[in-house]
Amino acid sequence: MKDLLNIKKVYFYYGKAKALEDINLNIKEKTLEAVIGPNGAGKSTLLRVISGLEEPDRGKIEFLGERIDELKAHKIAKKGISHCPERRRLFFDMTVSENLDLGAYTLKDRNKSRELRNFVFEIFPRLKERRKQRAGTLSGGEQQMLAIGRSIMSNPKLLLMDEPSLGLAPKIKKSIFAAIEKIRKEGTTTLLVEQDAALAMEVSEYIHVLEEGKIEMRGTKEELKREPRIKEVYLGI
């Protein structure tokens, strides 16, 4: 498998505060990789830098061999990177179907758009049942399903997912992560940021541990589960 995303020596500051330090990351195509770490570690900032919502202060980011770190967010989206942000960012006065349509704004192929919508309804049957319902009236779990579905509608080459389980009940978390596994099996490369380390490690092939803006550890889930500090701090073993 070839590299889809390459991040090389990236630094990012909020004012004088260092949020990301010397980040080096390679994401292989058709994989699901996760970034775990405590609150304030820089996980969400990392995704914002990749998607162009923030510009790195140093370093470079390449996507499919092309440098993207100086591009605006909408141009990065058109190249095939879709960002499903923390806290959903839905259009609450619009229906489920209208929110999904907005996710497909970069697609010109109507047949592909229809195919993607059917896939979203397949992995999230509740959205099909509520397709004419306004997003603001959905439950928290249903809103998260819609946020993920909207991100899929652009047919991304790389899907960035920020804290998809945030604030959800355990049963809903499991259904969300079952859908994430189906997305991976369909061949969409996914970079997942998640505070629930146990859940993230269950579905991911490779995990990066981000603490205080630095990647302190990385490896397969089998490798990390053998690390005493991971077991103590992240898995509670």
Automatic annotation (TrEMBL):
Cleavable signal peptide: none
Keyword set includes Nucleotide-binding: yes
GO MF annotation: an example: ATP binding
Protein name: ABC transporter domain-containing protein
Record key words, sorted: Amino-acid transport, ATP-binding, Nucleotide-binding, Transport
Record has Transport as a keyword: yes
Ranges of residues in domain ABC transporter: 5-237
